């Protein structure tokens, strides 16, 4: 297992410390992997909500400064509760950023913060909107980006049911790019 850091743990420090300095400190403490989390990227991002975008040249400079660290990108994306457009500007920008920071193994974690009233126990319980992750995964796979899902409001078995259903609609190769990345908290 690689020891790492998640930039949202630095939210307060980012008010007066550069992200590059925090990454450097994590590396000094033994981190091998850094998850770059939306809203906690300092000058490597702009905008909020639907207007959020990664600032690619700054992300490039950051990861180039640490060639011996691995990085991935995580963003909040309410893809389980509303229809998502895989060709939309924000998702495409996130895929581009994931490819840039992930180097040879690009990985985009999408975290849907939406709460749910009940766990999905069977396929019929899964909202139609949530099955839209199939098209997000297809687009990510076409660009060589691993897409992993998280929703802390659903048990892992419910999210696994969603991934299993989505994979049935994907080719075998596309399906290998879709997975889960549960929050252990």
Cα Rg: 16 Å
Shape type: globular
CATH architecture annotation name: Alpha-Beta Barrel
| CATH topology descriptor | TIM Barrel
Number of helices: 6
Query: For this entry, what is the oligomeric state of its chains?
Result: single chain
Ranges with pLDDT <50 over ≥5 residues? none
Give the tally of structural domains.
1
- The whole-number mean of residue pLDDT values reads 94
What would you give as the CATH superfamily?
Divalent-metal-dependent TIM barrel enzymes
* First and last CA, distance: 18 Å
Largest sheet: 6 strands, parallel
Q: In sequence order, what are the helices and strands, one letter per element?
A: EHEEEHEHEHEHHE
Share of β-strand residues? 15-25%
Strand order of the largest sheet: 1-2-5-6-7-8
| Total E-strand runs | 8
**Amount of helix:** 25-40%
Can you walk through the features of this model?
With 185 residues, this protein is an alpha/beta fold. The protein has one domain: Alpha-Beta Barrel (TIM Barrel). Helices cover 32% and strands 17% of the residues. The chain contains 6 helices and 8 strands, in the order βαβββαβαβαβααβ. The chain has helices spanning 19-28, 56-64, 89-102, 133-142, 156-168, 172-175; strands at residues 4-6, 33-37, 45-46, 53-54, 70-76, 107-111, 146-150, 178-180. The strands form 2 sheets. The chain has a 6-stranded parallel sheet with strand order 1-2-5-6-7-8. Helix 1 links the parallel strand 1 and strand 2 (33-37). Helix 2 (56-64) runs parallel beside helix 3 (89-102). The longest helix is centred in the middle third of the chain and has 14 residues, at 89-102. It starts with a strand and ends in a 5-residue tail after the last strand. The model has no long low-confidence stretch (mean pLDDT 94).
